[in-house]
Amino acid sequence: MAMASTPAEPKESRVDVLIIGAGPAGLLMASWMARCGIQTRIVDKRGTKIYRGQADGLQSRSLEIFESFGIVDRVLKEANLMAQACIWNPNEDGILHCSNKISLNYYTPEVNRYYPRVLHQGRIERFLLDMIKEDNDLSVERGILPTSLSINEADVEDPSAYPVTVKLRKVSEEDSDGSVDDEEVVHAKYVIGTDGAHSWVRKQIHCKLEGDSKDDFWGVIDIAATTDFPDIRSLTILHSVDIGNMLMIPREKNLNRFYVQLTPTQGHGETTERFDRSKYNPQLILEAAQQILRPYKLSYSRLDWWALYQIGQRVGDRFESHNRVFLAGDAVHTHSPKAGQGMNVSLQDTYNLGWKIAHVVQGLASRSILATYEPERRAVAQELIEFDRKWAGLFSGKPIKDLMDEDGISIRELLQVFTQRDMFMKGIAIDYNTSVLVVKESINAANGDLKHDVNISSVTKSHQSQVQSNQTLAPGIKVGQRLPSASFVRQSDARPSHLLEPLLSNGRWRVLVFTGNIKDAAQSASVSKLVDSLSSPTSFLTKYTPPSSSVDSVFEVLAIHSTPIGDVSIFDFPEVFRRMDEKMGRDYWKIFADGKSEASPGVYDVLGISSRGCVVLVRPDQYVSYLGSLDDVHALDEFFAQFMLDQHAEGNKS
Length: 654
What we know:
alpha+beta, D-Amino Acid Oxidase, Chain A, domain 2, 7-stranded mixed sheet
């Protein structure tokens, strides 16, 4: 008698990090993992990458991030630069006219080096895919659908455990026959959900999006426009009297994107309160755009992409579960695309999270640093939602007709909101609160006493150390914000550079030592005292660097001096700034001069650094953690003792 065969079990595997969703946020997360050598898989239910449409706006901070990963040149080569915004609205006679033109980069290069660019999401994904393939031979597994997720709560605090279990199934017709061979059980240390506004991961951890939805309906078309409208190649906001409003964005390859306000309709002319997507097509969107643009004409020779949307402003009630499963991007916050923030804020979510997970997986830091992700990024998401609600209301409303028109939208108010929030929109004014990773201060104007920032996240209060920053030493460098990119000169070869350029995204902390004039005896003594502390066997540089790794694998120490560049050489500086490696030779790339000249101010003047100098600690994501005196030699030891793991302790040696 034949015995019944035992059903085959799905194959099982382990991975440090599983990323679900291969949009820009997921790919940037994969970029961190690839750059830091973390075992990673990234899966996506889509069979192919995006080739047209979707998000397209790139703000200054996103371009700085791409610079840090080495792909900004590819972006700049293909993207369309937008130098000005034009505001069009009806004049007193009801005729559409241009009332205002605004420069889109009215800051100094030290504050903001990049104009906003436009390039469709598919090309951004291509650049990121190429990078992670080159860094770690990592590629996206497409046509893969997650079907279940569970967390073993008993193991979540064990750094060596794989407590998250995800079942995956192939969905591509070519590879799937519906058998058990198409299923896999993956045990992961960490799971990242970057799977969009309808996130499957969000539902698995019972996260709810909280907020509201506006009754504004919008269509979007990407076309090669034929028109007599004079500002077709500028970012343009158009307010009509009673037809609707429109946003025009000049794209790459002679394309233009039109965001067009629509009226719910059951056909031509008949309106209804219900928005029925089946009633719309590109021709109806174009006709609505033509009405708003009158008396100017609009047609197109090529339609590249189109879509419809009704998006409310919502934020997830949680960004993580047990600090093992995380949500990022549209998976945890949604808003309208009219502010050009979707891809930018999503990228910054995983730029914030990636290095933290890498540190924990590598055994460099405790899991306590993961608790900073939600408070840091939730604050940004909430600020974005508040801005988007205000901006969308102004954008969607009708322009004011006269002084008695209480419901009309003032163009002056619209411009005020646009300019006041521009730094936030560019991503260069984000300010992280005090936590285990950020040590702030506040100054009592009455007596000059230094006090801790009162706005401390409850998640990280227990980790607060006695270290305090001294913001007065460099007013132009804000603790909790991204390091500004002032210009300076590399000492070894007089190459002009910017402060952010050497701070590549490779998972390293940077200790920037502004030495002042190294030829001044008092300054030289302060620097020597600091260097002696850094070189001590008990220093954080030694304690938290794995014995088998290079001396700068976790921390890089850079010197920025104010001595005239011709009066010194690199050999006037201590060895910690110019280390010698048996294989690579002398490190010539970590000593910089102020760069002050008759033509331009130097980094000391731009950032308000006095002749006393200072020490600035910069996180791997380029945000400032600490700012202190050269004389406070043990502050950094205390700071890192909160969360870094001793690499020389028994069990941590590698």
